[in-house]
Amino acid sequence: MSAAVPRRGARQRDAAPVHAGPAIACRGVSVRFGDFQALTSVDLDVATGQTLALIGPNGAGKTTLLNALSGRLAMAGGRVQLRGRDITAAPIHARAKLGLGRSFQIINIFPEMTVLENLRLGAQPLAFGLQPFWRGVQGWPRLEERARAVAALVGLEDALDLPAAMLSHGRQRAVELGLALMADPPVLLLDEPLAGVGQAEIAATTALIERVRQGRTVLLVEHNMDVVMRVSDEVVVMMGGEVLTRGTPAQVRADARVRRAYLGEFRAAPGEESVHA
Ligand SMILES: Nc1ncnc2c1ncn2[C@@H]1O[C@H](COP(=O)(O)OP(=O)(O)OP(=O)(O)O)[C@@H](O)[C@H]1O
Ligand SMILES: [Mg+2]
Questions:
Q1: Strand pairing of 100-103 and 85-86?
Q2: What is the Cβ-side half-sphere exposure of residue 193, based on CA atoms within 13 angstroms?
Q3: Which of the ligands is closest to the CA of residue 65?
Q4: CA 239 to chain centre
C-alpha cells in the first residue's frame, strides 16, 4: 500500500499497463456513523476482470462499502487500493480519474433532461479537459460521439432526445448505467442495477449487465439471486458490516449460514456447513 495517487501534471497520458494484482483491494475498512459501526474491518479483493457480487440482507453494509470505495464516505480505518494505487485519501474525482465508475441504488439521473443531456453530464469528470489517464488523448472521441456510442451500448439509441422521465424504469436504469460508462471505467461499482425494474424488463437489464461487465472489473451489489448466479464469477456475503463468507455462486447458494442470514436468524453454529474466503 505504498503507491500514491499521482499529482496533477504527473499524469500518465498513454494507456496504463494492465495491473496484474487485484483491481480493488480493501484492508481493514471500517466506517462509523456516530456510535454505529456500519463496517468492521472489511478485507476484500476484487480480481482484475472478475465480476464479484456482493450480497447480504438489508443493512448489511453493501452500499456503505461502495460509498467508502468511491470516496463518498470517509473511512474510520483501513486502506483501499485501486489497480495497485493507494486511494485511501483520494477524493471522488481522483478515484474516477484512476478508473473507478459507479452506479447508484436510487436512480441518480436528471429526469427532465434528455438521455443525451444526461449522458453528456456523465462526462463531467472529463469536461475539464482531463482525459482519464488510461486513454490516450488522441483516442478520446468527442463527447457527443461518446454519448451516442454509450447509448448504443446500453440500448438507448432510439431514446437520445427523450426526457429521461418518459422512459420505463428499466430504461432509466440503462441511463444510470450509461452515465457511469461515459468515462469507460475499467472498474465499475454497481449498486442494485435491478432495483425497481419490473419483471418484464429483468431479462433485458440482466443482458445489459452482462454486456457492460465484459472487459471490466465489476463489483455488483444485487438482491436478485438468479441474476447474481448468472453474471458473477464469485460471491461475497456481507452481514452486520462484516464479510460472512466468499465462494462461487454455487458454493454460496449451498451455504447454510448464508440461508440463515437471509432468513434473519443467523447464528454461528459449530461445524455448520459453510464456505470460506
Ligand atoms: N448516512 C448514514 N447515517 C447513519 N446510518 C447509516 C447511514 N448510511 C447507512 N447507515 C446504516 O448503516 C447500515 C448499512 O447500511 P447500507 O445502506 O450500507 O446497507 P445495505 O447493505 O446497502 O442495505 P440494502 O440492501 O437495504 O441497500 C444500516 O444499518 C444503515 O441504516
Ligand atoms: Mg444498499
A1: unpaired
A2: 35
A3: 1
A4: 19
- Ligand 1 mutation target, pool 58, 224, 228, most atoms within 8 A of CB: 58
Residue whose CA is at the smallest distance from ligand 1 atom 3: 33
pLDDT (0 to 100) of residue 132: 53
Domain enclosing residue 243, as ranges: 22-98+224-277
pLDDT of residue 110 exceeding 80, the answer is: yes
Any idea what the CATH number is for the domain that residue 32 is in? Answer: 3.40.50.300
Q: Is residue 241 part of a domain?
A: yes
Counting the structural domains of the chain, the total is 1
Nearest partner of 106 among 166, 175, 193, judged by Cα: 193
Q: Which atom of ligand 1 is nearest to the CA of 34?
A: 4
Neighbours of 197 (CB within 10 A): 21
Would 272 be classed as within a structural domain? yes
CB 221 within 8 A of CB 55: yes
- For 20, the grid coordinates are 496484474
Beta strands in 14-156 (DSSP E): 24-33, 36-46, 51-55, 77-82, 85-86, 100-103
- With pLDDT > 70 as the criterion, what percentage of the chain qualifies? 81
**Domain membership flag for residue 245:** yes
Q: Atom 24 of ligand 1 has which residue's CA nearest to it?
A: 58
Report CA 62 to chain centroid distance, whole Å: 11
**148 falls within a domain:** no
